[in-house]
Amino acid sequence: MATNEIRVWDPLVRVFHWTLVVAFFTAYLTEDDWQDLHVLAGYTVAGLVAFRILWGFVGTRHARFSDFVCRPATVMAYLRDVLRLHPRRYPGHNPAGGAMVLLLLASLALTTFFGMAAYAVEAQAGPLAGWLGHLGESWEDVFEGVHEFMANFTLFLVVVHVAGVLVESLLHGENLVRAMITGRKPERP
User: Fold this and answer.
1) Interval 8-24: pLDDT, tens
2) pLDDT tens, position by position, 125-184
3) Backbone φ, ψ for residue 9 (5° rounding)
4) β-pairing, 5-7 with 184-186?
5) Cα–Cα distance measured from residue 165 to residue 67, given in angstroms and rounded to the nearest whole number
6) Which residues is 6 bridged to in the sheet?
7) How many angstroms separate the most distant Cα atoms in the chain?
8) CB 62 within 8 A of CB 8
9) Is the Cβ–Cβ distance between 184 and 5 less than 8 Å?
10) Helix or strand holding residue 7 (H, E)
């Protein structure tokens, strides 16, 4: 590691991030004729979300929620500073990025839960089949509708997240995509 860089994101966070990208888009783009792949990708997303929640409590410094989860007032103040083109630089996630992490984890958790619920009713399969498999077609429609809405909402959050990464990269003159690959960011005061 160069002396002018600091380690920010550990290998587990980086592997989680990029595996989640692949799994989410695999699940999003597959269905019907690709149902088995869709279900496998969905389970992968669910497992990754569970891991990230755990890692948010016991992981390395910048992986922990305590490092980047801020009060809503702090997030709003940060966003105002972004609009003024002078936000404070954070080594790890900034307050808006921390809020996005929470939103994405919650949205992905709900997406996978309702996907498993729909799968339980439709195919009497999966971890929720014992609880929900007996419900009728009307519940299947409800679960599928919520699952689809949440998947689309998650995609919207991904677009906002990528836009935020680009804005932050431009405002601070650093490549955050590279940082999520290498785990390092330039050291600055």
Assistant:
1) 999 999 999 999 999 99
2) 999 999 998 888 889 999 999 999 999 999 999 999 999 999 999 999 899 999 999 999
3) -105, 125
4) antiparallel
5) 18
6) 185
7) 62
8) yes
9) yes
10) strand 5-7
Domains of the chain, first to last: 5-186 (1.20.950.20)
Nearest to 68, CA basis, from 95, 43, 45: 95
Query: Over 48-84, what HEC string results?
Result: HHHHHHHHHHHCCHHHCHHHHCCCHHHHHHHHHHHHC
Confidence (pLDDT) at 3: 56
CA torsion angle 60 184 11 18 (round to 10): 120
- The two tokens of residue 37 are 């792949």
**Block residue for tokens 């299947």:** 140
Axis crossing angle, helix 11-29 with helix 137-172, rounded to the nearest 10: 130
Rounded to whole angstroms, how far apart are CA atoms 112 and 65? 22
Q: Give me the amino acid identity at 62.
A: H
Please tell me what DSSP assigns to residue 189.
-
Q: Is 184 helix (H, G, I), strand (E, B) or coil?
A: strand
